[in-house]
């Protein structure tokens, strides 16, 4: 395969040599290699200013991040062979970590496959292609997945906003075998079914697996409130771990149908109560009804999707956590989570402390958690670390 070259400006290779994988458009020597000369989805040999090759990149010439490193060996372009190799490397980690084949198999840049996400649900694979390069190689992706994993079905869940920036259409399509609307999975010994076609993202959020496992010692015999419950990842596990009662709150009736479905799978339906509606309104109504809880889980969607949302997003996190704290019993546990990459963990910690002091309560920080190891963090790319989970204890100010 003969590939064109993409030349960097002087010294623009330092970050890449230090381990980073991204090339920004202002780092390209556009006089030597104009970006408009490339098409989205192309591969190119990345060169330092002196012409020395640095590796092969996937191109997104119209974006700020205009190229992502696929391989540091210019003899290894993205093709089925490279995909099979990278999938086997990714699989070896997940098989070491988990007894059941239910996990995120590929996490983009961190698994050296930028633009590719694969979630595994036993023998069903749900795939997201977020780059034009991966879209151009979708047949290779399918063939490599079939060779490595021999699945019974592969679903392309290509309906994310990330595709818009690449000029790609959104679609959801079964591309191999058969994929039912709800697929089974197991997490922390608890059984679930996920709505892979109609649900959020790939249908399930494996990223909080380890944090949900840590619920067990806190919820046994306790009254639990799960806010933004989706299909019960936290709430159903709390019930399975021995909670006496669990209330799940979500704006989506479809998601709450999933909660009931998953509660029934684990024989805990009698413990579960679903509340459909806006979470903030539900909190006001529960407080007015003088309801109190021993453990509250606040795991909202990203309130800060872009840096410009930071101020309003921080206010939303404070409002949510403060209202949750008001609902806690005297010796209550709050699990506060954020999937907003732009919110540093220390800022979430400060939001919790400020909220506790505003309510004249003392807070003990018990545990900090991040995303599970099937979402490995690339040490040079801060953006690959996004999950924060803080477990804290709220005590009277006395």
TrEMBL record:
Protein name as it appears in the record: Class I SAM-dependent rRNA methyltransferase
Classification via SUPFAM superfamilies: PUA domain-like, S-adenosyl-L-methionine-dependent methyltransferases
This enzyme's EC code(s): 2.1.1.-
GO cellular component terms, A-Z: cytoplasm
GO molecular function per UniProt: methyltransferase activity; RNA binding
Top-level taxonomic group: Bacteria
InterPro entries: PUA-like_sf, PUA_sf, RlmI-like_PUA, SAM-dep_methyl-trfase, SAM-dependent_MTases_sf
């Amino acid at each position: 395969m003969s590939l064109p070259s993409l030349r960097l400006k002087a010294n623009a290779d330092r970050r890449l040599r230090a381990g980073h994988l991204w090339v920004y458009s202002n780092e390209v020597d556009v006089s030597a290699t104009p970006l408009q000369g490339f098409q989205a989805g192309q591969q190119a040999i990345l060169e330092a200013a002196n012409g020395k090759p640095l590796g092969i990149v996937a191109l997104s010439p119209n974006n700020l991040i205009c190229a992502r490193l696929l391989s540091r060996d210019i003899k290894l372009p993205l093709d089925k062979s490279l995909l099979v190799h990278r999938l086997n490397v990714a699989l070896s980690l997940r098989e070491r970590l988990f007894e059941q084949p239910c996990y995120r198999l590929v996490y983009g840049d961190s698994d050296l496959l930028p633009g590719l996400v694969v979630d595994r649900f036993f023998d069903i694979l749900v795939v997201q292609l977020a780059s034009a390069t991966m879209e151009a190689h979708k047949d290779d992706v399918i063939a490599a997945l079939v060779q490595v994993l021999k699945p019974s079905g592969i679903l392309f869940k290509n309906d994310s906003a990330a595709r818009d920036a690449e000029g790609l259409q959104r679609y959801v399509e079964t591309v191999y075998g058969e994929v039912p609307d709800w697929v089974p999975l197991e997490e922390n010994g608890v059984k679930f079914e996920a709505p892979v076609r109609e649900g959020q993202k790939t249908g399930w959020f494996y990223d909080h697996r380890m944090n949900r496992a840590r619920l067990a010692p806190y919820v046994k015999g306790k009254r639990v409130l799960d806010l933004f419950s989706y299909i019960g990842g936290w709430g159903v596990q709390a019930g399975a771990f021995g909670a006496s009662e669990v209330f799940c709150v979500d704006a989506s009736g479809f998601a709450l149908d999933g909660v009931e479905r998953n509660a029934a799978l684990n024989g805990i339906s009698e413990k579960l109560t679903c509340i459909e509606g806006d979470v903030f309104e539900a909190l006001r109504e529960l407080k007015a009804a003088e309801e109190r809880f021993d453990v509250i889980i606040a795991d909202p969607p990203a309130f800060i999707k872009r840096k410009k949302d930071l101020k309003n997003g921080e206010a939303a996190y404070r409002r949510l956590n403060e209202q949750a704290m008001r609902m806690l019993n005297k010796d209550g546990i709050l699990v506060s989570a954020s999937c907003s990459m732009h919110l540093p963990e220390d800022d979430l910690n400060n939001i919790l402390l400020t909220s506790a002091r505003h309510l004249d309560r003392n807070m003990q920080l018990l545990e900090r958690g991040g995303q599970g190891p099937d979402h490995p963090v690339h040490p040079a790319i801060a953006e690959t670390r996004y999950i924060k989970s803080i477990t804290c204890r709220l005590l009277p100010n006395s």
